[in-house]
């Protein structure tokens, strides 16, 4: 392993982060488990950053990929592509957006980049509203709108970005308000901000902030925002890269917790739909999607192989009601985690819904982020045979729990026990 690590460091950029003091090489997986190069098995509660959505080595997906690869692997969007059209039809119908059009990309970064292109072209403006503590990708444009310093290496941007309150419920100047007062204050902040801007193109927001540590506003905030945006003709982009496909349990899309004023104008997705294959995309109503007045294609977006994987994965998800499983097993898991965290002084908050759970760690008795504690628990969990993630704003001190949506009750119980042991090691 040290040899591979040395080779990695010799050819891969320094800014490509690796987890663990002794980095892990994952060689194969099955169901909710993966194995390392030494043959040790781990219960996977992070799923390749919320990407292995259904299960590792899901037979239905691997069979679809193999069969499609045996026919043709690549053609580009310059030719008719049956799997792409079929998956686009299904996603358009599920999106909740009327007269929807779907454009496939290879990642969430590229999906958000495309959404920004559409919004700015449609509105004739380069002004974007984003949420504090947000993360939207690693391209030049998406880094420029990311409201999390740890993931934004430059202030240079083709866009003018203005940040709005509301993405984090339990921190900031409105944290002490009731939910209703919190929403009123955030809407007032948005109204005030729009009084100081020119023509704004769009607000982009994650219904639950992923890299930011699984933080979210009270349900209904973005609906209240939407009513303000509509008065100004401003588009709403829902970044569903981490919240989509039923992970939150209660809804298929994260935006539906804020759907009282209707669906978003643009929805972006990626990660889980391909179950590990490189699939991202944008859904928008036809008027917005078709606003570009120049040619465009995608060489790799919508490839026959990745679309076959997406179709098989989506079918499995719906036929096995994995959204319902995320709600039921996720509800059990978060209660077990809350019980495990009771009496751990470093735990400030356990939050989330479905199989998207965050544990925020601080210096005991304070609100100061505790990245050292988060790193220690990450290491201890691995030693116990459990893989988890981490994130958070201001500093990386939130543990991120996001298993495949097919997680069983017994695996949830096992994972909570392993996590409790890791937390107690603090």
Backbone shape: globular
Structural class: alpha/beta
Number of helices: 13
Strand order of the largest sheet: 4-10-9-8-7-5-6
Cα-atom radius of gyration = 21 Å
Specify the biggest β-sheet.
Answer: 7 strands, mixed
Low-confidence stretches: none
Helix content: 25-40%
Strand content: 15-25%
Overall average pLDDT: 97
Distance between the termini: 27 Å
Structural write-up:
With 426 residues, the protein is α/β, with parallel strands linked by helices. Helix content is 38%, strand content 17%. The protein is built from 13 helices and 15 strands. It has helices at 2-11, 47-50, 59-71, 82-95, 108-123, 140-145, 179-194, 221-232, 286-289, 304-319, 322-341, 371-384, 409-424, and strands spanning 26-30, 33-36, 41-44, 100-105, 127-131, 160-164, 200-205, 235-239, 266-269, 280-285, 347-353, 356-361, 386-387, 389-391, 398-401. The strands form 3 sheets. It has a 7-stranded mixed sheet, sandwiched between helices. Strand 11 and strand 12 (356-361) form a beta hairpin. The longest helix has 20 residues, at 322-341. It is globular and about 55 Å long. The two termini are 27 Å apart.
